[in-house]
Amino acid sequence: MNPTAISDETLHAFVDGQLDIADSEALIACLRADQALAQRVCSLRSLKSMVRLAHAEPPPATGALPRPSRIRPRLQRLQRCAVGCLVLLAGLIAGWGLRGGVEAETHAQTPLTALDGYQPVSLAQQPDPNRIVLHLDSDDPTRMAAVLDRAEALLDEADRQGRAIELEVVANSHGINLMRAGVSPHAARIARMTQRHANLHLVACSQTIARFTGQGQKVELLPVAQAAPTAIGEIVSRLQQGWTYVKV
Amino acid sequence: MEAQRPVLYRIAYAWCHDPALADDLVQEAMAKAWARRAQLREEAALKAWMVSIMNHCWLDYLRGQREFDDIEQMHDTLESAGDSPEVCCNREQVIACVRAAVARLPMGQRQVLTLVDLEEFGYAEVAEILEIPVGTVMSRLSRARASLKLMLDQAAKRHGAQPMLRRVK
Predict the structure, then answer these.
(1) Which residues of B touch A70 (CB under 8 A)?
(2) Per-residue pLDDT in tens (0 to 9) along chain A, 248 residues
(3) Does A226 sit within 8 Å of B142, measured CB to CB?
(4) Are A13 and B57 an interchain contact pair (Cβ–Cβ within 8 Å)?
């Protein structure tokens, strides 16, 4: 794949997961070599996240002022009653059917050997082994090293198996020290890893940054790290998109 | 079917940016879906099928609003009313800012963008839902993201505000 000939449409298809594995891998190889191209992908991903976050929680309709319905007012009331009754019945049946099954679904084990000893959480029936978010909230040296070890193991495992994966390390609280320029004990390792793996993303919590700044600390992130409004929001939206969550 | 309600509402809101209208659209789509439930062949396609029904409700609504306008033309021109993205600046308002920018996209682009970004529909599914060719899905998405980036960059530049996701260095 010639990096200069990569169209915007191809990059969009890549960030939307619409390229097949062969094309994805070819593009990932180009991304490793071409900083400007990686920047374009990064900016598209940011844009996608912003659109998603901005619409994750639309304002509730119930707060609206009473108004005449704009769509077929005559049928509206009857339809609402009918649908409401059916929905209640369906909900009761579904609720009964799902009882006791929730625990098994949300805490199902992933077959990933790279995550041995950790508890992956997913909202899907089977945790997705190809989209994983690792969460770090401590600057304990063993945990900072562990999060990078896990990330590297997952990326290497996927490379070996020829899977295209997306991996995001989300840090908040003292965990953001992993991503702070001049503070992180692993800056060189992180630079090496992101250079090798274009599908590795580092995301720091803006609220934590604001809190540290408020305490008089100057917080500068590593160039490869991005800031999200909140770590929890990032994690929740990833879970909603079907990602697998692992607390390190 | 009820489990799709929050999904439909999120999409409807992203299309019209009006909570009351979004609620009406969802209600209408759910009623129609229930009435036509026999037409659904595969359970797995439920979400896409319901979104497709809601798309028809949305187009019907737009036709009702502008009876003499060409609906195809509107796909390229219609913008939601509301603040321009330049109005919003600080970080607390970034969500409103992104919504405002999305609302300013032509309706056809806005629909494609929200289906792909919010609900992670594949391009082929979006093409089926909106009854347009896959190539059109890709070109609308590309144009939508380019305009969105431009609007958000301009807004950020004008106010020297932090965008929601940024590189700190």
Answers:
(1) 20-21, 24, 61
(2) 565 678 888 999 999 989 888 888 888 888 888 888 888 888 898 889 888 888 888 888 765 444 445 555 444 555 554 555 455 555 555 555 454 444 444 444 445 677 777 878 877 777 788 899 999 988 889 999 999 999 999 998 888 888 888 999 999 889 999 999 999 999 999 999 988 888 899 999 888 888 888 888 888 999 889 888 888 888 888 888 888 888 88
(3) no
(4) no
E-strand ranges in A119-238 read 120-121, 131-136, 166-171, 200-205, 225-228
Nearest CA in chain B to A58: B10
Q: Is B31 on the interface with A (CB under 8 A)?
A: yes
User: Which chain B residues are within 8 Å of A221, Cβ to Cβ?
Assistant: 167-169
Closest Cβ opposite residue B168 in set A49, A50, A227: A227
- Interface confidence (ipTM) of the complex: 0.74
Which of helix, strand or coil describes residue A136? strand
Structure tokens of A13? 């298809």
In 3D, which of B70, B72, B82, B91 has the Cα closest to residue B18? B82
- Cut 0.90: pTM above it: no
